[in-house]
Write a structure and sequence with these properties.
Oligomer: single chain
Helix content: 40-55%
Number of helices: 13
Bound molecules: adenosine-5'-diphosphate, aspartic acid, magnesium ion
Strand content: 15-25%
Radius of gyration: 23 Å
Length: 460
C-alpha cells in the first residue's frame, strides 16, 4: 500500500501549553523528520488548543449566555494576550508581526461575535462551536509559525476545510468519505512537497461550511481520522503521561505503563473513562489497521504504549478504568413481566433524547442503566414515567477491569469481587466482548475501589 504520509503526530493541550512545551514539540518533530530516509514523507502534525484554553472559551460562552458582555469580552482579551505572548517568544521579525496580526484579527472577530451573543443572551450550539474552535485555530497557527522559525518547513491548514461532519454541534459525527477526499486533495500534496501540514484537532465543519466540534478531547479523534485517510504507518498521541497506565493516575497512586494493548482493549478503556484517549480514536485506526502509540512529550525517548490489532501474549489484564459522576436510572414496571416490546420502548426514549447509555442490567421487572450526559435527564425521566416507575441515583461511577483474556481465567471475577470486599456494588455486568467487567458503585468509593483492584491485579 502506498502511504501518503509517514506518521500523524498529535500533541495535546499540555504538550503545547506554553513556549517551552512548544519548543519540546519542535525537537520531537525534528527528530521524526531526521529519522526518515532522504526524500521520505513528512509527518502530519495535529495540535489541541493550549492547555485550559477550551475551558476558558466554554466559560466565555457561558458568560455570553448569561448576558455578561463585560466579563466575556475580558476573558477573550486575556486569551488573546496569552497567545500573543507565546507567539512573540517563539517567532521574530515579520513572521512574528504577521502571526500576531492573524491572532489579533481572529480574537477581535471572536470578541465581536461573543459580545453580540451576550447582548442577545443567546448562544446557539453552532455559536458555541464557533467560540470553542478558536482555541485549536490559534494554537495550530502558532505551532506552524514556530516550526518555520526553527527551520522546519510547515504549512498551516485550516482543519475545518478538511474534516467534514454532520451538523450535530459539540458532538459532530465525521463524514469519512468527504474528509478523506479533502485530506487527499489538501493535506497529501503538502506532505508530498516535504512540508509538514499543521492542523488543529477537534474542529471541523459541515458540508455547508458551518464550524462544528467533535466533543471534548476530540483532537485524538481528528488525528486518527487524518491518519486513516492518509493511510499513515502510525498515529502518535503525544501527551503528559508515559502511555496508557494500569489505572487513572489521578485516582490510584503510581500506576504502571502498559507497553502493549490490542485495539479492543484500548477502545474499551477509552470508552470507560481512560481520558488519555478519546473513545472514538481507535475506530479509524482499526479501519486501516494502523498502530496507535501513546507517548510522553516530556520524556520523548520513553517507549510509551503501542496499540495494535494483535492481542497481548502475556495473558495479564490490560488496565482498570473509571468513569466518574454518572447517574443510575432504575426503570421498573410490573407490566413488563413477559411483555414484548418493553425494552424497545425504553431505549427509544434514550434515542429520542440522544443520550447514550453505558451499562445496562435487567431483572424480572426492572431495567437499570447508567448515563453520563445529564443534560436531558429530566425529559428522559418524564418520558419513561409514562409507562414505568423511574428512580434516579446521581453521583455514581463505573469501574471497569479490562483485558482480552479476561474470560480465559474464571478466577479473575472472583478476585475482583474479593478485592472490592464490602464496597456496595449497585450493578455488575460483563459485556458481550467478554473483555470487560464493569462495576457500578458510589462515586465516593472510587478511590478505594480502584486502589484495591489495582493492588489485587497489578501490584504483585
Ligand atoms: P491531552 O491534553 O494530551 O489530550 P488529556 O488530559 O486529555 O491529555 O489525557 C491525559 C490524562 O489522562 C493524563 O494526564 C491522566 O491524568 C489521564 N488518564 C486517565 N486515565 C488514564 C490512564 N489509564 N492512563 C493514562 N492517563 C490516564
Ligand atoms: N481542546 C479540546 C478539549 O479541550 C480538544 C482536545 O484537547 O482534544 O476538549
Ligand atoms: Mg485529550
Amino acid at each position: 500500500m502506498s502511504r501518503a504520509a509517514s506518521v500523524v503526530m498529535k500533541f495535546g493541550g499540555t504538550s503545547v501549553a506554553d513556549a517551552q512545551a512548544m519548543t519540546r514539540v519542535i525537537d520531537i518533530v525534528r527528530s521524526e523528520c531526521k529519522s526518515q530516509p532522504a526524500g521520505g514523507r513528512s509527518p502530519v502534525v495535529v495540535v489541541s488548543a493550549l492547555s485550559k484554553v477550551t475551558d476558558g472559551l466554554i466559560r466565555a460562552a457561558g458568560l455570553a449566555r448569561a448576558g455578561d458582555v463585560e466579563k466575556s469580552s475580558a476573558l477573550i482579551g486575556e486569551l488573546l494576550e496569552r497567545h500573543v505572548g507565546i507567539a512573540r517568544t517563539l517567532t521574530t521579525g515579520d513572521r512574528a508581526d504577521q502571526l500576531v496580526n492573524k491572532l489579533t484579527t481572529q480574537f477581535a472577530e471572536l470578541g465581536g461575535a461573543v459580545a453580540a451573543m451576550a447582548s442577545a443572551k443567546q448562544v446557539t450550539p453552532a455559536n458555541h462551536d464557533l467560540i470553542v474552535a478558536a482555541g485549536e485555530l490559534a494554537s495550530s497557527r502558532i505551532v506552524a509559525a514556530a516550526f518555520e522559525e526553527q527551520g522546519l518547513a510547515a504549512t498551516w491548514v485550516d482543519a475545518r476545510e478538511v474534516l467534514v461532519t454532520d451538523a450535530e454541534h459539540m458532538v459532530a459525527v465525521p463524514d469519512m468519505e468527504a474528509t478523506c477526499r479533502n485530506a487527499n486533495r489538501i493535506v497529501a500534496p503538502i506532505v508530498a512537497r516535504q512540508q509538514i501540514p499543521v492542523l488543529g484537532g477537534f474542529i471541523a465543519s459541515t458540508s455547508d461550511g458551518v464550524t462544528t466540534t467533535l466533543g471534548r478531547g476530540g483532537s485524538d479523534y481528528s488525528a486518527a481520522i487524518f491518519g486513516a485517510c492518509l493511510e499513515v504507518v502510525e498515529i502518535q498521541i503525544w501527551t503528559d503521561v508515559d502511555g496508557m497506565l494500569t489505572a487513572d493516575p489521578r485516582v490510584v497512586p503510581a500506576p504502571q505503563v502498559v507497553p502493549h494493548l490490542s485495539f479492543g482493549e484500548a477502545s474499551e478503556l477509552a470508552y470507560f473513562g481512560a481520558k488519555v484517549l478519546h473513545p472514538a480514536t481507535i475506530l479509524p485506526a482499526v479501519s486501516k489497521n494502523i498502530p496507535v502509540r501513546i507517548l510522553n512529550s516530556r520524556q520523548p525517548s520513553n517507549p510509551g504504549t503501542l496499540i495494535t490489532a494483535e492481542a497481548r501474549r502475556d495473558g495479564h489484564l490490560a488496565a482498570l478504568a473509571c468513569k466518574r459522576d454518572v447517574t443510575v436510572i432504575d426503570i421498573t414496571s410490573t407490566r413488563m413481566f413477559m411483555a414484548f416490546g418493553f425494552l424497545r420502548r425504553l431505549f427509544e426514549v434514550f434515542e429520542r433524547f440522544k443520550t447514550a447509555v453505558d451499562v445496562v442490567t435487567t431483572s424480572e421487572v426492572s431495567v437499570s442503566v447508567t448515563v453520563d450526559d445529564r443534560r436531558k435527564l429530566e425529559q428522559i425521566v418524564s418520558a419513561l414515567s409514562e409507562f414505568a416507575e423511574v428512580d434516579c441515583e446521581p453521583e455514581m461511577a463505573i469501574v471497569s477491569v479490562v483485558g482480552d483474556r479476561l474470560h480465559d481465567d474464571p478466577g479473575v471475577f472472583a478476585r475482583a469481587i474479593n478485592a472490592l470486599d464490602k464496597i456496595p456494588l449497585r450493578l455488575v455486568s460483563q459485556a458481550a466482548s467478554r473483555r470487560t467487567f464493569t462495576f457500578v458503585l458510589r462515586d465516593a468509593e472510587v478511590p478505594e475501589a480502584m486502589t484495591r483492584l489495582h493492588n489485587a491485579f497489578f501490584q504483585q
